[in-house]
Specification:
Layout lengths: L15 E13 L2 E12 L3 E6 L5 H9 L6 E6 L3 E4 L12 H11 L4 H14 L15 H14 L4 E5 L7 H18 L2 E5 L11 E6 L2 E6 L1 H15 L1
Parallel strand pairs: 3-7, 3-8, 5-6, 6-7
Antiparallel strand pairs: 1-2, 1-4, 8-9
Helix pairs in contact: 2-3, 2-4, 3-4, 4-5
Bound molecules: adenosine-5'-triphosphate.
C-alpha cells in the first residue's frame, strides 16, 4: 500500500485515481458539514471510509461523485464514476437484470452488438452471467447490488463509489459482496471507495480513512484503524 509517497526526486510513486484536497461542504452558511478534507485513493486499490453516524461519509462520497457541489476545495477523478447506493431499489430502474445493465448503455447511444457484449461481460464479472432475464424483484439484496456494480462496469467506470452497500444485507451476503468487490478491484484494476461502519469489512480493503465530525482524522492501515475504533468503543462502553 503506497499512497503517493514522495520518492527522492519528489515524484509520486503511485497515481491517485481519486484525489480531493481541502474539500469543504455546507448545507447552509452556518452549517459546514465537511472541513478541509483530503482524500487520495491510489489507482487499483480498495479503500474504505469509516466514521460514526452523521460524521459526513455519505456527503463526502456524493461530492466525489459530483452529486453535490463542494463549497471549497478540489476534486480530481481519473475515470467515469460508478455510484452504488445503500438501497439498490433506489437505483435499479428496469424490470429485468439485462435491461437494467443495458439502460445506461442505450442512453449513451451505443450499437446493439456492443451493448449485448458489454451486458454479458459485466454480468459475468459479478457472477450473474445466468441472470440476464431474471426479474429484478426476484433477486436478493446482494444480487441487486451486484447488478448495480455490473451497470457501472458496463459503462467502463473504473472508479466505484459505494455508499454503505451492505447496510441492508444479512451477514453472509455482506461478506460475499465485500469479497466480490475486493476481487473485482484486483482483477480489473478498478479503484473503489466504500463507506461502512462495520469493522469486520475492514479486512478486505487496502486502506481506510476515518472521518470524525466532518474531518479526516486518520488514514492508512485498516488493521490499525480497526484497533483504534475498537478501543474507542470500549472506552465509550
Ligand atoms: N439534505 C440535507 N440537508 C441538511 N443536512 C443534511 C442533509 N443530508 C445530511 N445532512 C446532515 O449532514 C451531516 C452529515 O450527514 P451524512 O449523511 O453525510 O453522514 P454519514 O456519516 O453518512 O451518516 P450515516 O452513517 O448516518 O449515514 C449530518 O449532520 C446530517 O444531518
Amino acid at each position: 500500500m503506497t499512497l503517493d509517497a514522495p520518492n527522492p526526486t519528489g515524484e509520486t510513486l503511485q497515481k491517485a485515481a481519486i484525489r480531493a484536497t481541502d474539500l469543504c461542504f455546507a448545507w447552509s452558511e452556518d452549517k459546514e458539514i465537511l472541513h478541509s478534507c483530503a482524500v487520495e485513493v491510489p489507482e487499483g486499490e480498495f479503500w474504505m471510509l469509516l466514521g460514526a453516524n452523521g460524521s459526513g461519509k455519505s456527503t463526502l462520497l456524493r461530492l466525489l461523485a459530483g452529486l453535490l457541489q463542494p463549497t471549497g476545495g478540489e476534486i480530481q477523478i481519473s475515470s467515469p464514476v460508478g455510484f452504488v447506493f445503500q438501497n439498490p431499489d433506489h437505483q435499479l430502474v428496469m424490470p429485468t437484470v439485462g435491461a437494467d445493465v443495458a439502460f445506461g448503455l442505450v442512453n449513451e447511444g451505443l450499437e446493439i452488438d456492443e451493448i449485448r457484449q458489454r451486458v454479458e461481460e459485466s454480468l459475468s464479472a459479478v457472477s450473474l452471467g445466468a441472470f440476464q432475464r431474471r426479474p429484478i424483484y426476484a433477486l436478493s439484496g446482494g444480487q441487486k447490488q451486484r447488478v448495480a456494480i455490473a451497470g457501472a462496469i458496463a459503462r467502463h467506470c473504473d472508479v466505484l463509489l459505494l455508499d454503505e452497500p451492505t447496510a441492508l444485507l444479512d451477514p453472509d451476503s455482506q461478506l460475499e459482496l465485500v469479497a466480490q468487490v475486493q476481487a473485482l478491484v484486483k482483477k480489473r484494476g478498478i479503484t473503489a471507495l466504500w463507506v461502512t461502519h462495520r469493522l469486520e469489512e475492514l479486512e478486505y480493503c487496502d486502506g481506510a480513512f476515518l472521518l470524525e465530525a466532518g474531518k479526516v482524522v486518520d488514514r492508512g492501515d485498516p488493521e490499525r484503524l480497526k484497533q483504534r475504533l475498537m478501543q474507542t468503543e470500549e472506552v465509550e462502553d
